[in-house]
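Hey, can you fold this one?
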Amino acid sequence: MQPPALSILLLIACFGSARGNLSRDESQPTTSDETVVAGGTVVLKCQVEDPDDSSLQWSNPAQQTLYFGEKRALRDNRIQLERSTPNELTISISDVVLADEGEYTCSIFTMPVRTAKALVTVLGIPQKPQIFGHEQPIDEEKVARLICRSSGSKPAAQLRWRKGNRDIKDSGTEVVEDPNGKTFTVTSRVEFRVTKEDNEVEVTCTVDHESLQNSERSTTQKLQVHYKPTAKIEPHPQYPREGEKLQLQCDGQGNPIPQEFLWEKEGSDAPLQLSSDSVLIFPFLNKSDSGTYVCTATSSMGSVVAKYNLDVSDVPQLPTPHVHSTPGPSQPISHASMASAPSFTPAPIQDASPVPSTSSTYHAMIGGVVAVIVFLLLSLLIVLGHYLIRHKVPLALWEGSLPEPPPVTPAPVPPFPGTYLTHEAKGSDDAPDADTAIINAEGGQAGGDDKKEYFI
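Sure. Predicted structure:
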């Protein structure tokens, strides 16, 4: 147990020390650490409760005085005075660069001199990431190896990957310090096996960093995947008939797209067509064209075979296409088949005669139209003639609707002396005509002495 005198001395010493600390705190300046993004503005504030008739001063990490009270000490237009009072000195630094990072000192020149430190941290903004390894197309079922790289981050940034709508895990990350000794370059790698469904799929690399302030900086690239071709044969028209034109379209899909098409007919030795044209044309179908036609579509990734069964008949039938894959120059064998199309049942046919061609149908239609027109014209003529007969329309009015000429009045015959005998006077009622009557009259008067004249 300590003696009472010693305890009293210890209490006095502690009380004195506390009074000294309180006195020192009143004149001790206070500051705070600041973090700023490169290119931004940082504000440094220094405060003191009891300045003791002294001025505050700010110094940079190189111990160069920036401001002493309200007086500028360093000629740097980026540094501006914000507030100067006996109890506060606040300055700002704009367009901050990485070299501005460090400890800034606030001092008050009392006895003794008191200081406070403020650590300024400058964040390096990472550059937009770049993706490497996608320059050349990738064959299906092979492994894609992609690299994403971003430089200039401080501290080191984080990189993450995304393929389509799904996140993928990287296979490793590497961080290297840049030559300036302040920022870092981050490299991330990812590997995955591709299929033909990955063709044209977007792969995204995103950089995450506190300097981006919740914004996102990323790069997207589309994958190019080469895969084996597929093919199917489409007829046009869908239901071919004898006498019609038929086109067989060999629809080849793949990456790259097939550029060579070989057409053959099963049972025939010579190929029908070998070219870059995928269409086989039949100008006029015959029943002899019936058979199985084979299209071989070829690309750099291999070949594929599609078959079509053509049955030329008078009634439409739904063909059933078949597809088989065969290996290319250096590709393994693969087989694919198309589901059989539903059967087509034609309507019952009453007449077993051959179906006329399209041109014959057109001729029959034209002949029918002409016959109808002729029938209408004849009917119109019959009705019009019947109307004319019933109403006794003059022929002149019908032919041209011309007005009738005025009646011609004969000139009067001057009287001549002599004896005039008429047909009635001679009693020649039984004469057949006027001439006979005159002759008879002349015969009866042959012995007369008087000269007679006759007027008929």
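Confidence is low (pLDDT under 50) at residues 1-6, 8-24, 319-358, 445-451. Let me know if you want another pass with a different chain boundary.
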